[in-house]
Amino acid sequence: MKTGKVYLVGAGPGDPKLLTLRGKECLEQAEVVIYDYLANPALLEHVRPEAERIYVGRRGRGEYGDQAEINRLMIDRARAGKIVVRLKGGDPFVFGRGGEEAEAVAEAAVPFEVVPGVTSAVAAPAYAGIPVTHRTLASSVALVTGHEDPLKPSPTVEWDRLASTSGTVIFLMGMKNLPAIVAHLTASGRPATTPVALIRWGTRAEQLTVIGTLADIVRKAEAAKLEPPTVIVVGEVVRLREKLNWFESRPLFGTTVLVTRPREQAGEFADLLAGYGARVLTMPTIAIVPPADWRPLDRAIGDLAWYDWVIFTSVNGVRFFFERLRALGRDARALGRARFAAIGPKTAEALAGQGFKADVVPDEYQAEGVLEAFKKEDVKGVRILIPRAEVARDLLPEELRARGADVTVAVAYRTVRPEADGKALKEQLRRREVGVVTFTSSSSVRNYVELFADQAEASVLTANAVVACIGPITAETAESCGLKVGIRSKENTIPALAEAIVSHVAHSSCDV
Fold first, then answer.
1. pTM (2 decimals)?
2. Distance between CA atoms of residues 24 and 9, nearest Å
3. C-alpha span between 174 and 147 (Å, rounded)
C-alpha cells in the first residue's frame, strides 16, 4: 500500500485568489480534504470530484468540533495511503491550532508538510486600507489571541505591555470578548482615544469595517451587530483608512451580481465583476452539451472542401466544430480553401486559438452585423457552412439564402438547463440580497424563468433586482418573458456588460 501524507494548508483570509500556488497544488492532488468554517468553499473547486470532503468547521460562537476527532481523521486517512489536505482558514500556525495538529501527525509517524497561508491578521487590515506597520505611526505589531485557552492555569496575555506599546495590536478570535479586551487595555493605560477598527469577513466581497476608538467601539460593534469572524486592530495606523480605503471604494462593492452563464464560461465574467468589487453568485441556467445527433455535422465536415465560407456565431461553435473535426481523424487540411467569419472578437479569438484568422469580424456583434459585413461579398452561388447551436435565430441563414447563397446549417452543440437551486434563488430575491441579475443569451433567460412557478412569479421576484442583458436580442427575450430590463450593454461583449453594470450602479448611487 502506498504511503499517505498530510498537508496542513493555509486557506488564506477569505478571498479565494489569495490561496498560495503551493496550496492550490495540494488541493488538486488531494484524495481527502478536511476543511473548516473559515476556509472559503470556493477553494473546493480545485479539488477533484472523486475526492472525499469532510467538513469539521463551526461558526464563531458555536461549539468547537472535537480536536481529537480531527486529528484521528487526518491520521487514519493518511495511514490508509491517502493524500490528505487539512485546509485551515488563514495560516495554520497563526492561532489556527495547526501546531497541535502537526504535533499529533508527527507523533503518529505520518509524513506531513505545512503550507503557510496569508493570515487574516495582515490581510484583513490591508483590505480595509490599514497597514499594520508604518514608518511614522507603528514600528511594531503584536498578534494576540482574543480567546485564550480556558484550560490554562492563568491568563498569559501581558496587558500592561500591550497598553504601553506605540505599535499596532491585532486580536484574532476576539469579538465575543471585545468588551473585556477594551477594558483590559484602558485599565492598563491605553488612551481611550486610541483608534480601533473591526473588520468582519476581511478580504471577502461582504467585508464590513467599523471604525471607532477604545471609548466607543463596543457600542458601535453592538449597533452594527458584528459577529465573528472579525479582526480587531488597535493603533494609530487605523487613521490611515480614510486615505487608503481601496477595497471598499471599488464601484460595485456591496452589490451582489447573479451570473447565469454556463459554468465553464462564467469565470471571465465573474472575475471582471469581482475586480469591480461585486459579490458574485454563479448559478448557471444553461449547460453546453454535444448535439443529440452528430450526423449532420459529420456530413458537413466530410464535405468541407466543398465550402467557400464557414461562419462561426459563437465561441462554443468553434470549440465543438474543431473537437469534432479531430474526433473524426481530420485536421486543418480538410478545410481546403474555405474562408472564415466570426460574429465577434471573442469568437475570432477562439478561431485564432485553432490556428485560423477570421477574414470577417463585423462591427456589430450579432447576426445583423454579419449580414452587413457580407454586403461587400457577392454570395450568389457561394457555399456557406454555419456550425451553431441547435436553437438559434434563423435570420442569418435565411437572409444569406435570399441573397443567393447555398447555406448549410449544422448543429454543433445544444444548450440545456442544468440542475439549479430555484428555491434558494427565490428566497434571496425575496430578501433583496441580489442586486443585479445578468443574462448573456436568450437561452439563459428562458431557463432562468423556468426555475419559477410561472412568468408572473419570475417577474415579481426579479423586480427586486436589476436585470442586465448583453445586446438587444437577449434583452428582447427577457422583456418577452416578463422581465423588466434595466441595463443593456452597448456591445455584445462581456467587458461591455460589466462596464454597463458599473455605470448603472454609479448613476443609481448618485441619485440616492
1. 0.82
2. 9
3. 6
Q: What angle in degrees, to the nearest 10, is found between the helix axes of 442-449 and 471-480?
A: 20
Average pLDDT for 107-126:
97
Q: Which CATH class is domain 289-416?
A: alpha beta
Of the chain, the percentage scoring pLDDT greater than 70 comes to 96
CA dist list (Å): 162 to 135, 143, 510: 19, 10, 44
Amino acid found at 132:
V
- Please tell me if the domain spanning 5-118 has the same topology as the one spanning 122-244: no
C-alpha–C-alpha distance, residues 19 and 103, integer Å: 24
Which helix H or strand E contains 107, and what residues bound it? helix 98-107
pLDDT digits (tens, 9 = 90+) for 303-326: 999 999 999 999 999 999 999 999
Render 36-91 in DSSP notation, one character per residue.
Answer: -TTS-GGGGGGS-TTSEEEE----TTSPPPPHHHHHHHHHHHHHTT-EEEEEESB-
Bridge partners of residue 169, in order along the sequence: 142, 234
Domain boundaries, the chain: 5-118, 122-244, 256-286+418-511, 289-416
Closest CA to 73 of 82, 64, 63: 82
Is 440 strand, coil or helix? coil
| CATH assignment, 5-118 | 3.40.1010.10
Does domain 256-286+418-511 fall into CATH 3.40.50.10090?
Answer: yes
Specify whether the CB–CB gap between 479 and 473 falls below 8 A. no
Q: How many CA atoms lie within 13 A of 492 on its CB side?
A: 24
In contact, 488 and 501? CB cutoff 8 Å:
no
- 3 state DSSP class of 151: coil
Q: In the structure grid, which three cell numbers stand for residue 389, read together?
A: 447551436
Phi-psi category of 97—alpha, beta or left, where left has phi over 0 and alpha has psi -120 to 50?
left
Q: Please tell me the distance from the alpha carbon of residue 387 to that of residue 315, in angstroms, as a whole number.
A: 11
Question: What is the grid cell recorded at 157?
Answer: 496575555
| Cα 508 to Cα 512: distance, rounded to the nearest angstrom | 7
- The DSSP secondary-structure symbol of 138 reads B
Per-residue pLDDT tens for 118-140? 999 999 999 999 999 999 999 99
3-class secondary structure, 152: coil
Q: Which three cell numbers stand for residue 42?
A: 470556493
